[in-house]
Design goal:
Helix content: under 10%
Shape: globular
Distance between the termini: 15 Å
Largest sheet: 6 strands, antiparallel
Strand content: 25-35%
Structural class: mainly beta
Number of strands: 6
Length: 110
């Protein structure tokens, strides 16, 4: 989701949420952003897919499809910093017993 100051939340649809483990950059959970802004994360380690996300601290970035369809938020509306782990400023911690959702909020391009 993204929110510009004083504006209502707009849900981002399309693209992917990608996490990168702070402890091991080879651990990269990925989730496709579906209608309603919902994403389910799975993990890729050394090119092999696994269910869920190992506990730990993660950096977050957003990846966009090259062609945003007519019902998707245009890539141009999202600040480009969110496409890089080292610039996004987005971080999440996954607890060993965590079964709940995580929320990722980003700012609209100004």
């Amino acid at each position: 989701m993204f929110r510009a100051t004083g504006e209502p939340v707009q849900v981002l649809t399309g693209g992917h949420v990608i996490l990168e483990s702070v402890a091991d950059a080879k651990i990269k959970p990925v989730g496709e952003i579906e209608d309603g802004g919902v994403f389910t994360l799975g993990t890729i380690v050394d090119g092999v897919s696994a269910r869920g996300v190992p506990p730990g601290d993660y950096r977050v970035r957003i990846a966009f499809p090259e062609d945003a369809g007519p019902n998707r938020v245009a890539r141009a509306q999202i600040d480009a910093r969110y496409t890089a782990f080292d610039k996004s400023g987005l971080k999440v911690t996954i607890a060993a017993d965590q079964k709940d959702e995580i929320k990722v909020e980003i700012d609209k391009r100004r």
